[in-house]
């Protein structure tokens, strides 16, 4: 099956060479072709170029005329908690009335509130809720997504979450990676027995997850009041024994040496980073660990934004992800993530798009297949509505400027 997209006003993120990630100064450049065509063969990008070299309509099975429209690779959302039961809109109102995220957690809300709901939900109910969220983000241009467990907090409920993720993987043409986040919070029963829960995680949960091959990554909420750097290190190392690489929630509220722990233990990514010290920046510099910012979490719970400008200007790479979850970010809209990064973190549109495509792909280990328009990569692309320029994507926040999404060469139904 060959699909030709012709008369594209511009094709963004065109990279002839495979690259892993972009850092510092290099993030400012977003290579593009104007007045161009893109040729898809089965699930792959077969060719692209300017219209003077466009193949004939008769040499392909389907032609899409993209006059006035922009083409870009689908978003890569490397950090989500898309599988959860119910929502937490009452906590949203509590925050409006003055309670902080921490105060709500200390009253038994927050993650433990979601865990209670999830433990009571059946696998079918969970799947049904999650698939609707997945379909929503696909139509918003997400073509690869990482999904975490972490609202189960018992062996049985964590496996239930991960089986739902596995089923989503089997049923949708979007690339999905699963992360085991049993270390999201200490369950009430282990409030005064942290050692007991860490042992459960290391001795029972991680081996069981690995046995069923339910996850690629391991995560922990490394934060004051949650998991310490030492506890997180034990969890990361236990995961490594079973082939799980670390991607860690760190420095959301406090800097307690977590970034050093993660980098030293070879984490693929460190995520959140609303609080970053100069020392953290020098530790990340030159490492293989991708820093990941989640600006719509900052937006929703009114906490500081990741200091993106400072980090990129210091030469670091940066990825953007949604953090879609019921507590701190009830939205998986990567278009809004990109807008918020530009508006609130002063990232240029070029930097933000690089961060939400190729750098996001690195942060979830799919950079060889996704994140750029490169021959041989998966044909997962966004076709926009007619735009004056691609700057209109982050500029017109709240407007859905996506006309059509193609995933692995399959055009998705328009909504
Ligand atoms: O990434 N901070 C830790 N975990 C999630 C939120 C968890 C929740 O409140 O449900 C996050 O923001
Ligand atoms: Fe998160």
Describe the structure.
With 415 residues, the chain is of the alpha/beta class. The chain has 15 helices and 16 strands. It has helices at residues 89-96, 101-106, 111-120, 123-139, 155-171, 194-211, 229-241, 258-264, 278-284, 295-301, 308-313, 334-345, 349-356, 358-363, 392-395; strands at residues 2-12, 32-41, 44-50, 62-65, 70-73, 75-77, 142-148, 175-183, 217-222, 245-250, 269-272, 290-293, 319-320, 381-384, 402-407, 410-411. Strands 1, 2, 3, 4, 5, 14, 15 and 16 form an eight-stranded mixed sheet that branches. The chain has an eight-stranded parallel sheet with strand order 6-7-8-9-10-11-12-13. Strand 15 (402-407) and strand 16 form a beta hairpin. The mean pLDDT is 97. The site of N-(iminomethyl)-L-glutamic acid (NIG) has 12 residues, from helix 3.
List keywords for this structure.
35% helix, alpha/beta, binds fe (iii) ion, 415 residues, 8-stranded parallel β-sheet, globular, 16 strands, binds N-(iminomethyl)-L-glutamic acid
Helical content (DSSP H or I, runs of 4+) = 25-40%
How far apart the termini lie comes to 24 Å
The Cα radius of gyration reads 21 Å
Task: List the ions, cofactors and other small molecules found in this model.
Answer: N-(iminomethyl)-L-glutamic acid, fe (iii) ion
Pick out the low-confidence regions: none
Judging from the principal axes of the Cα atoms, what is the shape?
Answer: globular
**Major β-sheet profile:** 8 strands, mixed
Mean of pLDDT? 97
Which strand-content bin applies to the residues?
A: 15-25%
Q: Which structural class do you get from the secondary structure elements?
A: alpha/beta
Question: DSSP helix count?
Answer: 15
């Amino acid at each position: 099956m060959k699909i030709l997209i012709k008369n594209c006003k511009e094709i963004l993120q065109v990279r002839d060479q495979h690259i892993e990630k972009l850092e510092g100064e290099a993030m400012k450049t977003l290579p593009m072709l104007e007045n161009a065509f893109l040729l898809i063969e089965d699930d792959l990008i077969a060719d692209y170029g300017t219209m003077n070299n466009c193949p004939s309509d008769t040499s392909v099975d389907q032609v899409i005329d993209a006059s006035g429209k922009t083409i870009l690779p689908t978003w890569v959302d490397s950090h989500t908690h898309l599988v959860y039961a119910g929502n937490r809109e009452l906590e949203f109102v509590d925050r409006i009335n003055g309670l902080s995220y921490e105060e709500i957690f200390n009253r038994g809300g927050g993650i433990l509130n979601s865990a209670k709901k999830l433990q009571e939900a059946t696998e079918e109910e969970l799947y049904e809720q999650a698939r609707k969220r997945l379909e929503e983000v696909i139509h918003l241009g997400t073509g690869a997504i990482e999904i975490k467990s972490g609202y189960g907090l018992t062996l049985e409920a964590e496996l239930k979450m991960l089986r739902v993720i596995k089923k989503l993987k089997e049923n949708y043409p979007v690339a999905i990676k699963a992360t085991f986040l049993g270390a999201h919070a200490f369950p009430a029963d282990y409030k005064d027995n942290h050692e007991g829960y860490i042992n459960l995680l290391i001795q029972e949960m991680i081996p069981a997850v690995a046995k069923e091959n339910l996850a690629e990554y391991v995560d922990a909420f490394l934060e004051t009041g949650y998991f310490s750097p030492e506890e997180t290190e034990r969890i990361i190392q236990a995961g490594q024994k079973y082939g799980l690489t670390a991607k860690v929630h760190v420095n959301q509220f406090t800097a307690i040496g977590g970034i050093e722990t993660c980098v030293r233990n070879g984490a693929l990514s460190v995520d959140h980073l609303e609080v970053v010290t100069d020392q953290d920046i020098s530790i990340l510099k030159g490492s293989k660990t991708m820093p990941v910012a989640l600006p719509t979490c900052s937006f929703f719970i009114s906490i500081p934004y990741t200091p993106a400008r400072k980090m990129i200007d210091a030469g670091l790479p940066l990825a953007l992800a949604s953090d879609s979850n019921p507590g701190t970010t009830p939205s998986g809209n990567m278009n809004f993530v990109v807008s918020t990064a530009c508006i609130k973190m002063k990232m240029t549109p070029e930097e933000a798009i690089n961060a939400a495509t190729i750098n996001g792909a690195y942060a979830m280990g799919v950079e060889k297949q996704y994140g750029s328009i490169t021959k041989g990569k998966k044909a997962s692309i966004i076709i926009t509505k007619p735009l004056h320029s691609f700057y209109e994507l982050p500029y017109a926040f709240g407007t859905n400027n996506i006309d059509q999404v193609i995933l692995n060469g399959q055009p998705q139904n328009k909504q």
